[in-house]
Every structure is written in C-alpha cells, then in structure tokens.
Design goal:
The chain has 419 residues and is an alpha+beta fold. It folds into 4 domains: 94 residues, conserved putative lor/sdh protein from methanococcus maripaludis s2 fold, CATH 2.40.420.20; 82 residues, Efflux pump adaptor protein, beta barrel domain (Elongation Factor Tu (Ef-tu), domain 3); 65 residues, OB fold (Dihydrolipoamide Acetyltransferase, E2P), CATH 2.40.50; 121 residues. Helices cover 36% and strands 33% of the residues. Strands 1-24-20-19-23-2 form a 6-stranded mixed β-sheet, with no helix packed on it. A 6-stranded antiparallel β-barrel has the order 4-13-16-15-14-17. A hairpin with a 2-residue loop joins strand 14 and strand 15. It starts with 13 loop residues before the first helix and ends with a strand.
C-alpha cells in the first residue's frame, strides 16, 4: 500500500523577489507619470505651425522702428484778420509766391466805414492837441516879449534917473518928477520879478502838458495806424516766400474773422514728423539719431524736438535731416525709419515675435532636450527693438523658445509638438 506524501511549496528565489519589486515599482511609476501627465494642461500643435527661436548672446542695438511723414520745416498759416466777402483771388493753390505778394482781396463795407470814421475822429483830436501845444508856445513867446519890454523900460528909467539926479541939484527937475521916476523903476522891478516867476511856472506847466500831449498824440497815431492796418488787412498778402499748398477760397464766399484761408510752406527745407508709442516716451530725447533707406540710399536724421502731449497712445517727435538730404521728396510722403535709443550692449537676445503681445515678456514656452515638448517658464525681459528683446532672467544661451503667437495656448502649461 502506497503512503501519501506531503508536497511542500517551493520558496521564491531572491532574484524572483527582486523582479517582482522592480515590476511593482516600475508599474507604480508609470501609473504616476500617466496621472501626472493627465493633470498638466497640454496643448498639441503641429510643429510647422510654430516659430522656434534660439536664445543667443550678442550685441543688442537699442533701435525702434518709427514711421514719419515729410513736412515743411517752416509753415505759415493764413488767417482772415478781418472777415469779409472774397472779392478777388490773385493766385491759385499750389503756386509759388513771394513775400508781400497779394493773394486775395476781401471786401467789408462795415470795416471801410469804421476805418473812415476812426480816421476822421483821430485826425480831429490830433488837430485839437496840436492847437493846445501851439497855444503853449505862443504864451511862452508872449511872456518872453513881456519880460523884454519890462527890461527895456527899466534900462530907460535908470538912464532918466541918472540925468534927473544931476538936474534936481540945479533945480531943473522937480522933486516930484524925480520921485516919480524912482517909484516907476521900483514898480518895473517888481513887475519883472513877477513875470519871471510866472514864466518859470508856465514853463513847468507847459513841459508837463506837452509830455502828456505827446503821449496822447502817439496813442492816437497808433490807433490811426491800427485802424488803417485793419482796413489794409482786407488785402491778404504772403507773409513769406514759399509754396501756397492750401488755399480753399472762391470768389463771392464769405470768410469770418480769424478763419483759415490757406498755408504757405517753405519747400527748400523739410523735416520728418513721427508718431511713437508711449512705451518709449521716457527714452526718446532730442539729439538721438535715426536712419532710413530711400531709393537704395541710406540717409540720416536727428530728433530735434519731442512733444510732451500723448494722444491715443502715441507722442510726436520732429526730426531734421543730417548731412545729405534726400532729393525729390514731397510733403506728406511717408518714411520708414529706425531710431537709435542707446549704444549697442552685449546681452542675451531672443527674437521678437507674437508671444510678446500675449505674455508681455513675462513668460515663454521653452522646448525640452527632445524637442517634443515645451514647458512654460517665467522670464524677465528688458529693452526691445524691431528684431530682438533683451533677456534679463529665466533663459540661457542655446535655449529654444516658441516665439510665435500664444493666442490659443495662454492657459496651457505644456505644448506638445506633433509631426
């Protein structure tokens, strides 16, 4: 009879336990990675739809592109000082005119009548003041003549007294006659003293009044000239020589006081007027240089004035040509220019792209070593020009960055590049 034998289970070898542990750990890690990947917001996009740029170290040229318009360096606007109806037009729009040349004759009956009345009234007042001044001069001459007569009478009396003194001793002249001559001489001396005092007073009054009259006459004369000039201003003349680039006037139409009649440009000297984004308002100053190319030739210009006002996100600058100015340019012509804000500086550079508008330069998507994924990374940028942005923190030389627009992936944390 056969006896049953108990079968014992074989124990696992150490290497089998090792394989089991490795399998469990590997499976756990795989599950973790799958769960972690599932929790990361990922955007899948074909690689050919993206622009990838490499961070490089080089000279950063602090340039910005600007668009300028050719404008005359000097322009003078023509306004109707005194309004009126257009009576005669002497030149056409676009014509070249000389300083002082008549351009248009306006007609204003009220102004003519007012000027005539003002002329008559002013002339009357001037004549009145002239009469007062002449009266002072006549009084002066009369007083001088009176003093002359008194002095002459005193000389005569002194001569008569000298004779009378000798004749009184011989009783040839009575005492009464002698004393009468003495009394008259004393009287004439008193009259002379009074006349001299009166003359001094008259001179003082005359000088004060003549000064006042002179001032009044000068003011009246100025008023007369103003009245005459207001009448003369009905004939509009060219204040400078140049081209009449705007002159919208027609015979018979009415122009109001101060209304714009036209514009004269000095066409032998031009400037460039450019609008610049307010982002650069603190960095643009007079004296900075700009370059542009026209018909295959490079030209230079320089900022001569920065206007402080900001309108609709831009401010205005004036630039003047430096050295050789381009020929055959026209008012209103547009130029594409590059304005230099500073000297070149060696730094990390990243190509400028659509990402800068989406992130403001605060973060980017950086490709990993495989080139299959791009992860979001915070960065800090500095200056920018029309080609590059200066990288201050967050990137290293050789990093590959997606620089195209992030408009579809702003909320993502990772980008997966597909074939």
């Amino acid at each position: 009879m056969t006896m049953d034998r108990k079968i014992e289970k074989k124990k696992w070898a150490i290497w089998q336990w090792g394989l089991l542990v490795v399998g469990v750990v590997g499976g756990s890690w795989l599950i973790y990675q799958l769960l972690a990947d599932a929790s990361i917001r990922t955007y899948r996009v074909p690689q050919e739809q993206l622009i990838v740029s490499t961070v490089e170290f080089g000279a950063f040229e602090d340039l910005i592109p600007i668009r300028g318009t050719i404008q005359p360096f000097n322009s003078v606007f023509l306004d109707a000082v005194i309004g009126g109806a257009v009576e005669t037009v002497f030149v056409e729009e676009g014509a070249f005119v000389e300083a002082g040349q008549p351009l248009v004759q306006l007609s204003n009956t009220s102004t003519r009548l007012t000027a005539a009345q003002a002329d008559a009234g002013t002339t009357e007042q001037l004549n009145y003041l002239s009469g007062i001044a002449n009266g002072f001069e006549t009084t002066k001459l009369n007083t001088v003549r009176e003093i002359i007569n008194i002095e002459y009478r005193m000389i005569t009396l002194e001569r008569l007294l000298g004779r009378a003194e000798r004749l009184v001793a011989d009783s040839l002249v009575s005492e009464e006659e002698y004393e009468s001559l003495v009394d008259e001489l004393v009287y004439q001396k008193k009259i002379l003293a009074n006349s001299l005092e009166r003359q001094e007073l008259e001179n003082t009054i005359r000088e004060e009044r003549l000064q006042q009259i002179t001032v009044q006459m000068k003011m009246l004369q100025e008023n007369l000239e103003i009245s005459q000039s207001s009448f003369d201003s009905l004939l509009v003349r060219a204040p400078i020589s140049g081209q009449l680039t705007s002159f919208p006037v027609e015979i018979g139409e009415s122009k109001q006081n101060g209304q714009r009649l036209g514009q004269i440009d000095v066409v032998d000297h031009y400037k460039v007027v450019a609008q610049i984004d307010e982002y650069y308002v603190s960095r643009v100053t007079a004296g900075q240089d700009a370059t542009f190319t026209l018909v295959g030739t490079e030209f230079a210009a320089q900022v001569i004035k920065v206007y402080p006002e900001i309108t609709e996100g831009t401010f205005t600058v004036d630039l003047e040509f430096v050295g050789l100015a381009p020929g055959n340019i026209r008012r209103g012509q547009t130029l594409q220019m590059e304005l230099t804000l500073g000297n070149p500086v060696e730094s990390l550079l990243l190509a400028l792209g659509g990402f800068i508008q989406d992130t403001g330069g605060n973060w980017v998507f950086v490709l990993d070593a495989t080139g299959e994924y791009a992860l979001r990374r915070d960065i800090r940028v500095g200056r920018r020009n029309n080609r590059y942005v200066e990288v201050r923190e967050g990137l290293r030389e050789g990093d590959r960055v997606i620089t195209s627009s992030y408009s579809q992936m702003e909320d993502m944390e990772r980008i997966q590049l597909t074939q």
